[in-house]
Structure to design on (248 residues):
């Protein structure tokens, strides 16, 4: 699909999905964020706000099965959010430029990708979303989430930010999962929560992150779609059921 065709494609989909436009200016080339307000979705919203970039948001309601629609699969055949379309290509911000800071940033990005996101996700699944509550799985992932908090505690006790002295993408992508781990309410009533009072360095870092204006703006994207209620059967089927494994 050429650039003009791609833009018309997104314009039609954005209109159909009631996309909101943030920070839009006349004649600006907008990044398209195709996402939903989950820990993974918040990473993208916060990063775009921190960068001060022009963007528009198209909602993909994963509980309703929007991620399986033809339009979304054209962007990412993996049917996972978030997805981003950037007409101008990648830049170089939110990753330190000095070699040591850069590789420390990449190291902690890998820690989030291989540890925090999948382990916190499994904790949420088995302790909150699964119909059958399996004690072994709940205990395993609860303990692993606490262990990962201890790893972060050691790092943030010696370093202001995860990559060192400079705020980076490593902080952004980790923050959204820590935030969800601390949540209470009906959604996570059975799971329990992490008390950051047990991890003072993580709490210092978390509070500083949460106070950043760009973080607040990023978390506000589609916040009205977040409902404090237990997962419904439809949401469970679309996010964890057989629908996930249908050949497309």
């Amino acid at each position: 699909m050429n650039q003009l065709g791609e833009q018309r494609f997104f314009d039609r989909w954005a209109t159909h999905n009631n996309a909101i436009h943030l920070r839009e200016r006349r004649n600006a080339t907008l990044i398209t964020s195709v996402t939903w307000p989950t820990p993974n979705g918040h990473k993208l919203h916060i990063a775009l706000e921190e960068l001060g970039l022009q963007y528009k948001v198209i909602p993909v309601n994963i509980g309703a099965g929007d991620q399986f629609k033809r339009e979304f699969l054209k962007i990412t055949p993996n049917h996972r959010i978030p997805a981003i379309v950037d007409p101008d290509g990648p830049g170089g911000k939110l990753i330190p430029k000095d070699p040591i800071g850069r590789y420390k940033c990449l190291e902690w990005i890998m820690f989030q990708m291989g540890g925090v996101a999948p382990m916190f996700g499994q904790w949420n699944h088995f302790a909150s979303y699964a119909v059958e509550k399996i004690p072994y799985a709940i205990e395993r992932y609860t303990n692993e989430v606490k262990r990962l908090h201890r790893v972060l505690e050691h790092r943030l006790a010696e370093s202001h930010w995860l990559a060192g002295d400079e705020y980076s993408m490593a902080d952004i992508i980790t923050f959204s999962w820590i935030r969800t781990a601390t949540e209470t309410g009906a959604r996570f009533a059975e799971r329990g929560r992490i008390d950051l009072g047990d991890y003072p360095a993580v709490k210092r870092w978390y509070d500083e992150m949460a106070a950043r204006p760009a973080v607040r703006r990023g978390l506000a994207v589609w916040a009205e779609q977040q409902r404090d209620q237990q997962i419904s059967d439809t949401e469970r089927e679309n996010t964890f059921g057989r629908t996930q494994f249908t050949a497309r």
Notes: The chain has two domains: 3-93+227-245, 99-211. The CA atoms of residues 152 and 202 lie 7 Å apart. The two ends are 20 Å apart (CA to CA).
